[in-house]
UniProtKB/TrEMBL annotation:
PANTHER family: OXIDOREDUCTASE, SHORT-CHAIN DEHYDROGENASE/REDUCTASE FAMILY (AFU_ORTHOLOGUE AFUA_5G02870), SHORT-CHAIN DEHYDROGENASE_REDUCTASE FAMILY PROTEIN. Keywords: Oxidoreductase. SUPFAM superfamilies: NAD(P)-binding Rossmann-fold domains (SSF51735). It comes from Hazenella coriacea. InterPro entries: NAD(P)-bd_dom_sf, SDR_fam. This is 3-oxoacyl-[acyl-carrier protein] reductase. Belongs to the short-chain dehydrogenases/reductases (SDR) family. GO terms for molecular function: oxidoreductase activity. It comes from the Bacteria.
Length: 255
């Protein structure tokens, strides 16, 4: 591929930043979007441009079909292709809230942001990938999501992500004949300041929730995403890949 394009959805802050930087190092032109974090987006765009990476920074809310279509059109007009689509974005309510106490709007926000939005984005980008007969789509879940577990207090998010598992697996089967792989990664409980940190920064640090001992980092996630994005990873599709350090959601708590 000559000058491939990666769209990292909602990646200008947090875990998406190491993904952007890693894929840029791998030679991708980078499309990225933000909803409100314009300053963070402009900052990483400037860093990438200084290192010679072509970038496209877009404002848009992925839960809105019109915004997704507009952003897709911007990428098509600028580069005419998308080779890798990484869907990191997805809202989460950190306050433990039983289903009965959720408002209708909170439920809608969780489902729109974590499930419907992925359908909108994939629906926009798949025609390009089918023309190319090549594509890599990577979605994000939470620990053990492929088992559709109960997650008391976070049921709306869990339901949306469990639905995303089925969507990911269905797409992996439907798009395999077109040279497109679709996989999910799920991080453990990675929090600031480690979301944008390197593995080296976490070495020697203690995380009592992590069976491996140290905190997880954005670089841990980036290494796996870059592997899945590689052209030679074409035999891996429909996979749910944990990047958790052994953490399970039974250990989750709001700090």
């Amino acid at each position: 591929m000559s000058h491939p394009v990666a769209w990292i959805v909602g990646g200008v802050k947090g875990l998406g930043v190491p993904l952007i930087k890693g894929l840029a190092q791998d030679g991708y032109r980078i499309a990225m979007n933000y909803r409100k974090s314009r300053q963070a987006g402009e900052q990483i765009q400037q860093q990438l441009q200084q290192s010679g990476t072509e970038t496209l920074l877009m404002q848009g809310d992925i839960s809105q079909v019109e915004d997704v279509k507009r952003m897709g059109d911007e990428i098509k007009q600028k580069w005419g292709r998308v080779d890798v689509l990484v869907c990191t974005a997805g809202p989460f309510i950190f306050k433990r809230t039983p289903i009965r106490e959720l408002t209708h709007q909170q439920w809608k926000d969780m489902v729109d942001g974590n499930l419907n939005s992925i359908f909108y984005i994939v629906h926009e980008i798949l025609p390009l990938m089918r023309i190319q007969r090549y594509g890599r789509i990577i979605t994000f879940g939470f620990p053990e999501v492929e088992q559709a577990p109960a997650w008391e207090g976070y049921g709306a998010y869990a339901a949306a992500k469990a639905g995303l598992v089925s969507l990911t697996r269905t797409l992996s089967r439907e798009e395999a004949p077109h040279g497109i792989t679709v996989n999910m990664v799920y991080p453990g409980d990675i929090r600031d300041p480690y979301k944008e940190a390197s593995i080296q920064m976490a070495k020697g640090q203690i995380d009592p929730q992590s069976p491996v001992g140290r905190p997880g980092t954005g670089e841990d996630i980036s290494r796996v995403v870059r592997f899945l994005a590689h052209p030679d990873s074409d035999f891996i599709t429909g996979a749910m890949i944990p990047i958790t350090g052994g953490f399970t959601n039974l250990q989750f708590h709001v700090k």
